[in-house]
Amino acid sequence: MTTMDETREFLSGLxxxxxxxxxxxxxxxxxxxxxxxRFEVPGIQGPAAMRALLEKLDEYGIAIHRVTQTKGIMTLxxxxxxxxxxxxxxxxxxxxxxIGPRAxxxxxxxxxxxxxxxxxxxxxxxxxIVRAIEEVRRAASFGVRxxxxxxxxxxxxxxxxxxxxxxPSDCRFKMSAHAGISNPCSARLMESIGLxxxxxxxxxxxxxxxxxxxxxxxxxxxxxxxxxSSGGFIRHYEVPEMIRVAAPLYLKxxxxxxxxxxxxxxxxxARQRAKQVALVKRMIDxxxxxxxxxxxxxxx
Length: 300
Known about the structure:
Elements: H1 3-13, E1 37-41, H2 47-60, E2 66-68, H3 78-90, E3 94-98, H4 126-141, E4 146-149, H5 152-164, E5 172-175, H6 184-192, E6 197-198, H7 206-215, E7 220-223, H8 239-246, E8 249-252, H9 267-287
Parallel strand pairs: 1-2, 1-8, 2-3, 3-4, 4-5, 5-6, 7-8
Helix pairs in contact: 2-9, 6-7, 7-8
């Protein structure tokens, strides 16, 4: 046995894959309702875009399970949060709001430099942790229970707050692709500190995705397409295999309509995002028709 074989056996003993799963095994894991996949549309920054998206999806006869805002709770008026919560109830979808202050909006110039931008959207200093918790408490007071997290420290402390009852116990946390999670070990770590669904890097390949699925039980959120700023690639033909090897899966769709992660989606662009969902659904229906999707209203 070579030293590399020994390393692979050690990883296997931890319940981790020995390497990337080039054999692309079929995942037997499912959502609580038995489904393999759900739809999520990110980058919906306010109520007008959210209404346009949901109305257009209704025309297509497609129900989605998550609508995600990415600019931050601090960019929304109380009335806007209330309206978005109302739309989520009306259309039986989960509303995810992003935690607002991040390195990119902080007073440091580091995150804006070529090397410094590698810190991504992480939080800088304990005051930003305080503000992150305040963001969650504010949105939770209006009935929001889904939150997009960018920082592993913030995730840990929010999970502790959830366990202690300092924030509602039914809050759910998903991690952004901007956290850079790209291997089964980092995915396992995030799951262990309270993550309810994980969004790996946008260009993760199928064999990597299959290995990550082996390591975690929480849903994986995968981009089926991307804004220009993060590559602009469209992966619709890969979606059937993504579902097969990585279920349960949230298909994050519509990103190619946007220029950047925090793009302020217009009403017309929201309708274009709805069309992208319909295009992905067509791929699934043609190439993996036996795949099971959650019905409208499935959140947990």
